[in-house]
Amino acid sequence: MTRRLADGVLQGNRTALSRSITLVESTLKSDEEQAELLLDSVLAQRRSLQPAHVDSAGLTSFRLGIAGPPGAGKSTFIETLGQFLTAQGHKVAVLAIDPSSSRSGGSILGDKTRMEKLSNDPNAFVRPSPTRGTLGGVAQHTNDIVLLCEAGGYDIILVESVGLGQSEIVIDDTVDMVMLLVPPAGGDELQGQKKGIVEIADIVVVNKADGELAAPAKHTAVDYMHAMHLMRRKDPDWEPKVKMISALEKKGIDKVWAIVEEYRKTMGELDKIAQKRNAQSSKWMWNQLNEQLMRSVSRSAAVRHKADKMKEDLVHGFISPRSAAADVLELFLKSQQEAK
């Protein structure tokens, strides 16, 4: 099954890509094993193929992260940008990370319904993905999904992350460039913007610069220019830019993309995008190790029984959470040794 899915992904079959992503996102143990085989097969076959798109830095794709607060118009912007890019001959994948309920694990929004036109574009692939409570709204398997999309021939990957403030800095571990999309705002609203996401932004885009909001948008852009000028640069070779647009009126999209292309050329030729991806791969390996270890521990009946017995001791303060965790881990490792 995995070989057939891998072949379908590499042939650009959207159904195969969608099924592959579903497999990668699954938390069933049997699916996890199949997902590993699938990813290994895709990577092995991809190495032997001649890529359709290669930029001046030798990269076959570009990964753009788009973060911002609720009300910034991210969905409208992404749909407008996606249509602009497919019209230029690009294949665009949108990984639109849904806000998920931390209690139910279910998604509140469905991005396909918010990006109907782009979803129906034959050169675009829109995939909502629940966060499952992962910090920052970037799903734990986004890195694997990006690799699958690139193997499917998508040369522009847009990763939308929910607007949760400072935790959104984790998006920088997934993409080549971070865009902060903001609505027109007054000085008080700008002061309330979390510093972390502003510091990692490579470009700030002020959306909704139309009608009565045109003047406030201009003031917001100036405020961000001043604020970013006072901050230490994320990279000495790139000065973050600020741009005003109206996604609704499709104005300024070409100018924003020109800045993205400038960043890609500048940082790519300095080998900084490749270096960043190498560092990201290492981080994702450790993230995956943490996730897999947690799943393995939670699947152990002995561990669950021990944890349940510890609850009362924790509540009454007879044992610290740290000591309880150490006891649970010791029990898990012992059970693994005995199982061999």
UniProtKB/TrEMBL annotation:
CDD domains per record: MMAA-like (cd03114)
Any idea which GO molecular function terms this record carries?
GTP binding; GTPase activity
Kindly name one Pfam family recorded for this protein: MeaB
* Residues of the AAA+ ATPase domain: 60-232
Give an example GO cellular component term for this record.
cytoplasm
Top-rank lineage group of the source organism: Eukaryota
Family recorded in the similarity comment: Belongs to the SIMIBI class G3E GTPase family. ArgK/MeaB subfamily.
The protein's name is Methylmalonic aciduria type A
Identify the species of origin.
Phytophthora rubi
